[in-house]
Design brief:
Helix content is about 40%, strand content about 35%. With about 100 residues, it is α+β, with helices and mostly antiparallel strands. The chain has one domain: Ribosome hibernation promotion factor-like (Double Stranded RNA Binding Domain). It has a four-stranded mixed β-sheet with strand order 1-2-3-4, covered by helices on one side. Strand 2 and strand 3 form a beta hairpin. Helix 1 packs parallel to helix 2. The two termini are about 25 Å apart. The mean pLDDT is about 85.
Length: about 100
C-alpha cells in the first residue's frame, strides 16, 4: 500500500514516519483484494493538540477520519482504529448490494 504522508508546518522525523507507516499498513487486510487504495495521512499541530487526518480513497467512496490527541502517535492510533470500523462497514455495505 502506498501512503502519502503530509506534515503541515513541521518536519516529521524518521521515527514518526515509520510509526505512521506501520500503523496504517495494518489497514491493508481490511481492503478488497486487488483494489489498491489511495491513502493519505496528514499530521498537523493545532491549538487543541496534535491532529491526524486519515483519508482513504477506495473505488466509489472517500473515507475520512480526523482525530486530535496529546501526541501524534495517539492521534494516528485513534484514527487507524476508527478507520478499521469504517472500512468494515463500507465492505459490508458493498457486499449487501
Amino acid at each position: 500500500m502506498e501512503i502519502k504522508l503530509k506534515a503541515l508546518k513541521f518536519d516529521a522525523g524518521e521515527k514518526l514516519t515509520a510509526f505512521v507507516e506501520k500503523k496504517v499498513n495494518r489497514l491493508e487486510k481490511f481492503f478488497l483484494p486487488g483494489v489498491p487504495p489511495e491513502t493519505e495521512v496528514t499530521l498537523e499541530d493545532v491549538k487543541e493538540g496534535k491532529k491526524a487526518k486519515l483519508h482513504i480513497h477506495i473505488p466509489g467512496d472517500d473515507l475520512i477520519i480526523e482525530k486530535i490527541a496529546d501526541t501524534f502517535e495517539n492521534a494516528v492510533t485513534g484514527a487507524v482504529d476508527a478507520m478499521k470500523e469504517k472500512l468494515t462497514r463500507a465492505k459490508e455495505k458493498l457486499f449487501d448490494k
